[in-house]
Design brief:
Blueprint (H helix, E strand, L loop, with lengths): L3 H17 L5 H13 L1 H21 L25 H19 L13 H6 L16 E13 L11 E3 L3 E13 L3 E15 L2 E13 L7 E3 L3 E5 L3 E6 L5 E7 L1 E6 L10 E5 L3 E4 L5 E3 L2 E3 L1 H4 L13 E6 L10 E4 L7 E2 L7 E3 L14 E4 L12 E5 L3 E8 L6 H6 L1 E10 L21 E10 L3 E5 L16 E6 L2
Parallel strand pairs: 5-6, 14-16
Antiparallel strand pairs: 1-2, 1-3, 3-4, 4-5, 5-8, 6-7, 7-10, 8-9, 9-12, 10-11, 12-13, 15-20, 16-19, 17-18, 18-22, 19-25, 20-24, 21-23, 21-25, 22-23
Helix pairs in contact: 1-3, 2-3, 3-4
Amino acid sequence: METSDDNLFRKVHTLAQRQLEGALAPHEQREFAALLEESAAARRVYAEFVQETACIRWLCVDSMVGAPEAVTPSRGGTGSRTQPSPRRVAMFAFVAGLACTVAAAAVGWNYFLRPDSVAAAVGATAAPRTIQQPSIADQAVATITGLQAVRWLDDNVATSLLTRCRVGDRLQLREGAAELTFDAGVQLTVFGPADFEITSPTSIRCVRGRVTTLVNERGKGFTIETPKAKVIDLGTQFGLNVSEDGETQVVVFEGSVDLKYDALGDHAQAPSRRLEQGDALLLKNSGELQRVVSVARNHFLGGVDGFHRSGAPVIVDVRDNIRKAENAKSYQIVHAGLDEDVPCFVDRNHEWNAMVPDGLPTFLRGADYVMPFNDDKFIRDLEITVYLARPANLYIFLDNNMEVPPWLVENFADTGVDIGLDGAHTEWHPANSLGVGAGRSVDFPFSIWRREIKRPGAVTLGGIKPPKFRARGFNMYGIAAVPIE
């Protein structure tokens, strides 16, 4: 049975093929432009088309051995290595034949897509040119695959969806967000105000702004240089924020990065520090590294679609009593983000899910929530302080396999409703896999406890006691808050 996803894939595939052949009719040009502007899914399909064509360019034109895999965004927003679907195999086969034909006909990849606007992108027809190996400075290495409420610093700049970007291009945003898909296997989202330059097919220099990267196996080694640091990606998803005075914050959401830093800017002699999933550090202008105790996950992973959040945050900060200043572990606060299949912890890939197909309880949907550390389930004397900006109902999700701690009984009331945890594959649970959708693949039920907080301020939570029988596994509690209107 054909799905809507198949229809979208076929439509983008057909229009992209006709675009490459210079055969789009005027009405098709307008249709393609509107589709790509309105649909994030269509832009993802087109981005994969761009990357896979680049792969074949390397195979057929540059005589490179082995086809690099393309970025395949997972439902969680991170790159993943998956078995290719028949649709992707079909696309790859088509693009392979087309690219080799293009190579034989002496049409260089450097001229595949060179528009400055959507209309030009889907309508331009260029005469064949002799293949030349371009200099690094002339290479088109990335495509703008998403824009959201963007205002460029120079109002005369007409950088639009599907514009191809070259080494040496400098992009300056007043506001909004722009997504770039690099041919090398990297998706980059920049949030304004920002100022960055593409310095090679696998690197940028950022002097200001927030940047989030999603790097697949092929894109390992992608580098972001700032005035005081160099961040080398090792196949991961991480965020970077460069302040106006050049201080650099690095947050690792998945995988790991190497951070080279030197207050004098001499990166060649700079010391290096490996940051793992859940780590966050601030490099100050003095050269000192400082722990970032909590970060707002939305600031980096909002994406170009719907990154604006309505309403003021409820949870504004989180602290604990166990981690010293040199520790790099950081809590992540997700504003208005509690939903199906969202991550539970910073140091595991488990997800929250409803217990029933109807979805999460209404009173929890869209709540602010905290991603704590699952390993903190072992710390009896733990104290976590949550700072609330306004009156709220504060919720604790307690693993039903855990003993109920006294501080929870004394200060909270059991709602009688449960939420589920979908356990990810780990060395302790090798048979686990993540499901999709409400009521599916729930491995651990959690009871939901509520406390009404009538005034803004700090609320301190305690530790938990591991169960006597651990064969089934157990988890740290979750934290969420909903404003009292």
